[in-house]
Amino acid sequence: MKRLLIVDDEQIVREGLKAILLKNFPEIQIEDAKNGTIALNKAVIFMPDLVLMDIKMPGMSGLETIQKMSEINPNIKFIMITAYAEFDYAKSAIKLGVKDYLLKPSKASEVVRAVGKVMSQIDEEKKSKEKNIHQQTVLQKALTIVETDVVTQLLFDHVHEIHLDELVGLLDTPMTSEKFVMSILLPHDSKSLYTEIKQKVRKKGNAWVGTLYGRQIPIIVFRKQDYSFRFQAITLARDILSISGGKAGWFIGIGNVCHSLETIRQSYQESLIATKDSSLPVKYRFYSDISITDTIIDGHYSKKLENQMFDQIRNGQWEDILKEVTSLIEFYDKKGANIIEAQQRVLELLWVASRVLNEIGVELDSPLYFVQINDFRQLRMETNHFLNQMRQSFIDYQNQVEDDTIRQIRQYIIENSHKQISLDGIAQKFKLSPIYISKLYKEQLGVNYISFLTECRLEHARKLMLNPEKSLKEVTFDIGYQDPNYFSKVFRKMYGVSPTEYRKSLLGAKT
């Protein structure tokens, strides 16, 4: 119900206006005041949407009252009703944002027309406000999807140049020149705490949270200039670990700082390697604190060999993996190394392999040698057994994907591109890892997932723009975007012209 306040020092005027308005607007709640002071008090308690204000009143004038009332509530609308037609009054009223100016005595029809017009404006503003609130809510949900997709693409794929700058801009994160990755390792029964972890990280306002991969959550953190890297990382790690309540199985690995998003994958791989020993009393570890001697091993540095395995596992290069691990064992054998030392080193590489398999959706327990390793021949045999098990698990996972699954995913994206879909959502629908879907998409269709989704949306936009009755803002929402500026930037980068320019040429060609 709308609220209207009549302010006039003449009771007969107040009663007359009230009778006219109740007859024509029975749904309006009306109160009155005989002077500015009373009107100001009622403005606080009654909170009117519209005020009919006399100019000349004892004490505080109508113009003064409007000025003070607007300070209390800038959304109040005003209509002046006065016997004075001087230009100066009208000019002052206009400056104060008065919506209409009626002279006494006014006809009932004039009062009804003026009030009806302002009430319509109030209705439109209310609808617009509600729509904006709804759009902001939808936008926040969309940004959550954007955030997890950007993290996935940065760490496991490559975001197309058309999108990265705009996506980063949409997320509105205070980015800095230095960034690093933290990988959270959860126990199997704590996956339901993902939302709580995300909220905890978001309070810091300087990180992007990826989706949950197996038991792992990757976080891209932007280093604050006011804090050291280690202080910021330790503080965030402790905040996250506070959610665990001391429960076993939680661990956080922290990668080194890098200086570009293009090299962020290195920090991610380092963060995963840092979680290799989750039995440590302190439940977080920096990659830089891992004491591995950078001795050249068969032409490869130790750390380089670990990092190399990430891509080999993801690409299913099992022959290369077997060759690398076998070469490492032979190196230790020829070196005359202690068998326990060699076993531990090989086990660490197998651990990397199992962690990467877990990341793409292949659930494996951490590898452990269940027999006493007495010599290098036995170490080779047991290690080959582990690698063959991993290889078979990888193949079995691939076989779950029928030949036409990627085509089904492609069709699903085409049909739902106007909705807020994400890699994570598609992965849940098709019961596959989002990383694996991204990999399959590129291999089988030769295009990045985000690029294909964008192409679908923009193609839909071009069809909608044929309708001159549909605004570009409506087109933006209809194709699944929530920000017209973002839509315009992506459209221009894809087609070389703005949506407005494209529509003009399109409609001009049809006439």
From TrEMBL:
Entry-annotated residues carrying 4-aspartylphosphate: 54
InterPro entries: CdaR_GGDEF, CheY-like_superfamily, Homeodomain-like_sf, HTH_AraC, HTH_AraC-typ_CS, Sig_transdc_resp-reg_receiver, Tscrpt_reg_AraC-type_HTH
GO function term, MF aspect, one: DNA-binding transcription factor activity
Superkingdom to which the source organism belongs: Bacteria
Residues of the Response regulatory domain: 3-119
Family matches, as CDD domains: REC_YesN-like
A biological process from GO: phosphorelay signal transduction system
Annotated ranges, domain HTH araC/xylS-type: 407-505
Keywords for this protein: DNA-binding, Phosphoprotein, Transcription, Transcription regulation
Pfam families noted in UniProt: GGDEF_2, HTH_18, Response_reg
Name under which the protein is recorded: Response regulator
